[in-house]
Write a structure and sequence with these properties.
The complex is a heterodimer of chains A (about 290) and B (about 375).
Chain A (H helix, E strand, L loop, with lengths): L1 H10 L2 H5 L2 E9 L2 E4 H16 L3 E8 L4 E9 L6 E10 L4 E8 L1 H7 L4 H7 L24 H4 L7 H12 L5 H5 E9 L3 E4 L2 H12 L1 E14 L4 E14 L2 E16 L2 E8 L2 H8 L7
Parallel strand pairs in A: 1-6, 7-12
Antiparallel strand pairs in A: 1-2, 3-4, 4-5, 5-6, 7-8, 9-10, 10-11, 11-12
Chain B lengths: L16 H5 L19 H14 L6 H4 L3 E5 L4 E4 H14 L4 E11 L5 E12 L13 E13 L2 E9 L1 H8 L3 H9 L5 H15 L16 H14 L6 H4 E9 L3 E4 H13 L6 E13 L2 E13 L14 E13 L2 E8 L2 H12 L14
Parallel strand pairs in B: 1-6, 7-12
Antiparallel strand pairs in B: 1-2, 3-4, 4-5, 5-6, 7-8, 9-10, 10-11, 11-12
The chains are: A alpha+beta (about 290), B alpha+beta (about 375).
Chain lengths: ~290, ~375
């Protein structure tokens, strides 16, 4: 399945990937959900028109049972500019049932020599989203999803994944130092790649401070015990501060982690910033 | 749990459409009086839906609907196959590329030899013609529908139809209250009014204070579902969500309400119920089938009745009106907890009924079309 996805973007092999699409397959990209072959193929063709036929320069995979995930980067040989995509998919090895593709649209806009505002105008309209207000507080006897609720965690990485989630859900910032390798490669969509956790910690603070009443919720996870990789689909809800007004917003995130000796040695944190700007009429940059 | 339920019958989830349209297996159910080509009730529903809607053989309604076929929606009532044909044609004319993607069919064999089918459908369609929503928008939208049908001897003899119209019109760029005002000008027939009145009265009589206990030991589908209604909707005890939902359950409600996990689901239910704080709910039908070894799918048809308390100041004149909803829910349950829920009802008709009953004239935001 991973190769079919890669070959779509590198060779334009629509036919091969089409064979894995059901009448009821959903493909979510830029926070718009396409259903069935016709709508999904239209999304692919739009992506191919935007990306061109690029070269695969990096990939990180998580081969799970019910769900799998792949992160890859595609580069333009001439300009050396690249774009990254993350796919989180439910599949049965033959067909894809549901797929969420997150594109680093900030980098894609750069690749296309467009300003973020110009790119936002070109994006497809996202699905309508009605976000209800809720109590975001972690009351002592209320229950909020943690990784072990979502899937069975292997002993060697369970404590690290749990601490990783606590950084986001409970703001346990001190855990950064314990779970990231000093030389960890951390890439944040729209911001870029760095070594170690410092940039990620800064991002975490800016993200939560940009909103009031932020709340992180796990959706799905998959684990590849052979490669020591984990993919987590999650989102952040919060009140975006817009002068004296607030806007209730949701930020979908896919994180792909690579572990070694119980430490994170690589993290790809993928967010489609410009789709979020389009969804909620927000200015870019968000943080 | 009840994992061995009905595993022989066609399951839609992973099936390519080509296989669903040409089933190769043996006949799995008696299907007395049905055409020989159908191997089970799911096959019947999937193939007749495809033939009528995607192949545009609207006239096949004469073959697959009984002459007298009550169809209940929150917006209207129709009784005969001629109206089914006319309504189908009207919808196809306004949305000519409408696809009907069968997501799931949850069914039940009833004691009276009928089959009950609850069909969860996603449609993609482009609004190129004028419709009950107003003038053509030329926009493509997606909508979730649940069609609950009673099937007997190759025909649908009764149907309850719910569609997430508020989600559809949001994609078409139409304001929800404007659409409701537009809908409220349609005059329902006498049978609809009688049904609406009797249903409102029936649901209002629900004994909502009686406690129900749900434990791992007394867990049955019936007890689970009735406790879900009584505890959450009738008694508004939202801390008990953990008894019903997995901590990362996915929850889809009309109008684009998408929640994951207990906190968000709680918020959705509280915000929705607060517009009808005295809401009472009844479960009107339950069907259950196995999904996999650990998972079951439950289909519910339900009703809610109470008194309207507006949140939107445009709807303030409707305060105190009768609030009634016909809804359907599909839930996937694993280890006695809901992991995925899709609930569908028509918010446009809900507000249209309130406006019509109040007898008030509300202004629209958009300019009124001269000819629709």
């Amino acid at each position: 399945m991973f190769n079919k996805l890669i070959e779509l973007y590198t060779q334009g092999d629509v036919a091969q990937l089409s064979s894995s699409i059901l009448h009821s397959t959903s493909w979510r990209q830029h926070d718009f959900t396409a259903y069935g072959n016709m709508q999904i193929e239209k999304l692919w063709l739009k992506s191919l028109e935007q990306f061109g036929f690029l070269t695969l320069t990096k990939k990180l995979t998580v081969n799970g049972s019910e769900f799998s995930a792949i992160y890859f980067e595609l580069s333009n040989d001439d300009t050396q500019q690249n774009v990254s995509l993350t796919f989180f998919l439910e599949h049965n090895n033959t067909h894809i049932k549901r797929l969420h593709c997150i594109v680093d649209t900030v980098r894609l806009a750069q690749l296309l020599n467009l300003t973020p505002e110009q790119f936002v105008d070109e994006l497809i309209s996202p699905d309508p989203l009605f976000l209800s207000q809720f109590d975001h507080q972690m009351h002592p006897q209320s229950y909020h999803a943690v990784p072990s609720d979502i899937c069975t965690l292997p002993d060697n990485i369970a404590p690290t994944i749990t601490q990783w989630w606590n950084i986001w859900q409970e703001k346990h910032l001190a855990s950064f130092e314990h779970i990231y390798h000093d030389d960890a490669v951390v890439n944040i969509a729209g911001i870029g790649s760095s070594t170690g956790y410092v940039a990620l910690r800064h991002f975490q603070l800016k993200l939560h401070n940009r909103m009031n009443r932020s709340y992180c919720q796990l959706e799905h996870m998959c684990i590849d015990e052979k490669q020591n990789t984990v993919a987590i689909q999650w989102h952040v809800d919060g009140d975006y501060l817009d002068g004296n007004n607030i806007k209730r917003i949701r930020i979908p995130v896919t994180s792909i982690l690579h572990f070694e000796n119980q430490k994170i040695i690589e993290e790809q944190l993928q967010i489609d910033w410009l789709a979020i700007c389009k969804s909620f009429s927000l200015p870019y940059p968000f943080v | 749990m009840t994992s061995k339920l009905n595993n022989e019958i066609t399951q839609v989830h992973w099936q390519p459409l080509t296989k669903l349209l040409e089933p190769a297996g043996e006949k799995k159910q008696t299907l007395s009086g049905f055409d020989e080509e159908f191997i089970d009730i799911v096959d019947y529903i999937i193939r007749i839906t495809h033939r009528i809607w995607e192949q545009k053989n609207v006239g096949l309604c004469y073959q697959y609907y009984s002459d007298i076929c009550p169809v209940f929606t929150l917006g209207a009532y129709s009784e005969c196959v001629e109206q089914v044909v006319q309504n189908t044609l009207k919808t196809i004319a306004a949305f000519p590329d409408r696809s009907l993607i069968g997501e799931n069919v949850i069914w039940k064999e009833e004691p009276d030899n009928t089959y009950y089918s609850s069909h969860l459908i996603t449609s993609i369609m482009t609004n190129t013609g004028n419709s009950d929503f107003g003038r053509a928008t030329n926009k493509t939208g997606r909508v979730t529908t649940i069609a609950d049908c009673v099937c007997f001897e190759n025909k649908i003899i009764k149907e309850w139809l719910v569609r997430d119209n508020s989600f559809l019109i949001a994609q078409l760029g139409i304001d929800l209250i404007d659409a409701a005002i537009h809908f409220s000008r349609l005059t329902p027939n006498e049978t609809f009014n009688n049904w609406y009145n009797s249903e409102y009265e029936r649901v209002g009589k629900t004994e909502h204070r009686a406690l129900r206990t749900l434990t791992a030991k007394n867990w049955t589908v019936e007890n689970f579902v009735q406790s879900w209604v009584q505890t959450l909707f009738n008694q508004k005890q939202f801390s008990t969500l953990t008894d019903f939902y997995h901590v990362a359950a996915a929850h889809q409600w009309p109008g684009g309400r998408r929640s994951t996990g207990l906190a968000q689901i709680s918020g959705t239910l509280i915000q929705w119920l607060s517009q009808c704080p005295d809401a009472k709910m009844t479960i009107d039908h339950i069907a259950v089938v196995g999904f996999d070894e650990e998972t079951i799918d439950i289909a519910l048809r339900w009703s809610v009745a109470g008194t309207y308390t507006p949140h939107d100041e445009r709807l303030e004149p409707l305060k105190g009106q009768r609030f009634f909803v016909l809804g359907c829910t599909h839930m996937r349950v694993r280890n006695q907890k809901i992991i995925k829920e899709v609930t569908v009802f028509d918010e446009i008709s809900l507000y249209a009924n309130l406006i019509r009953e109040a007898g008030v004239t509300l202004p629209t935001l958009a300019q009124e079309p001269k000819h629709v």
